[in-house]
UniProtKB/TrEMBL annotation:
Residues 51-64 have a biased composition (Basic and acidic residues). This is SDR family oxidoreductase. NCBIfam families: PRK07231.1. It comes from Streptacidiphilus cavernicola. Signal peptide: none annotated. Residues 51-73 are annotated as: Disordered. It comes from the Bacteria.
Length: 256
């Protein structure tokens, strides 16, 4: 799945799933513009990615930019930076996500809902719009939105997060229909992955959670990254408008 000469924007790329996606794309030869809110985190991530080369096939180049995925001005800047740095904007990976403090839908802070939807729904749309207008409309491309397995259920206190991700899933379908045949748009729904963002879920009961999963382990960021890179690659040339559930089989685990 070589992607030499292609360029990608990966949001929320300073750690976790986004960092692993950037690693996978660079290893396949693609250039990567990595973005996140934390400037120091972006700088450190770029340094680690550049240092992780080694011998073998050509690796892509990586640069970093800061800003909020929920800020349309920032997403516009990222697209133009990617074009200036690498000469194209072939791939967009909307990985950045706002996971606010747990709260029921009926009495959650309205400001939290607005911020969550800004980052998880409006931001991805703004980034795809900018990429479409600047590059993809004429040259094609592929988009992957990172959703969550939670859209298939209702996690306690996760109303804002899961509802916004469900909206992103539906947006994925609409964009796939609207931008075909030149641009493919898909999503990945990760199960419980061992990231810092989800640490408070998995760390207190990792062994029990793993044993309840048919694959007998929790996910790693690299598991999700492999799915994302595949969906962006020519190997998935006839795949669009789909959601790839990557959860270690949790959804088919026998009920106890």
């Amino acid at each position: 799945m070589r992607l030499d000469g292609r360029a990608a924007i990966v949001t929320g790329g300073s750690r976790g799933i986004g960092f692993a996606v950037a690693q996978g794309l660079l290893a396949s030869g693609a250039d990567v513009l990595l973005t996140a809110r934390d400037g120091i985190g972006v700088e450190e991530a770029v340094e680690r990615l550049r240092a992780g080369g080694g011998s073998g096939e050509r690796r892509g180049r990586v640069e970093g930019r800061t800003g909020s995925a929920g800020d349309p001005d920032a997403t516009d800047r990222w697209v133009r930076s990617c074009l200036e740095l690498f000469g194209s904007v072939d791939f967009v990976v909307n990985n950045a996500g706002a996971n606010q403090p747990l709260a029921p839908a009926v009495n959650g802070d309205p400001a939290v809902w607005l911020d969550t939807f800004a980052v998880n729904v409006h931001g991805p749309l703004a980034l795809v719009r900018a990429a479409w207008q600047v590059w993809m409309r004429e040259h094609g491309g592929a988009v992957v939105n990172v959703v969550t397995e939670g859209v298939h259920g209702a996690g306690p206190g996760l109303a804002a997060y899961e509802t916004s991700k469900a909206a992103l899933l539906q947006l994925t379908r609409h964009l796939a229909a609207e931008l075909a045949p030149g641009v493919r748009v898909n999503s990945v729904s990760p199960g419980l992955v061992r990231t810092e963002l989800a640490r408070h879920y998995w760390e207190p009961a990792e062994r029990q959670l793993a044993s309840a999963t048919p694959m007998r382990r929790l996910g790693e960021p690299e598991d999700i990254a492999a799915a994302v890179v595949w969906l962006l690659s020519p190997a998935a040339a006839w795949v669009t408008g789909t959601d790839l559930l990557v959860d270690g089989g949790r959804r088919v685990a026998p009920r106890r």
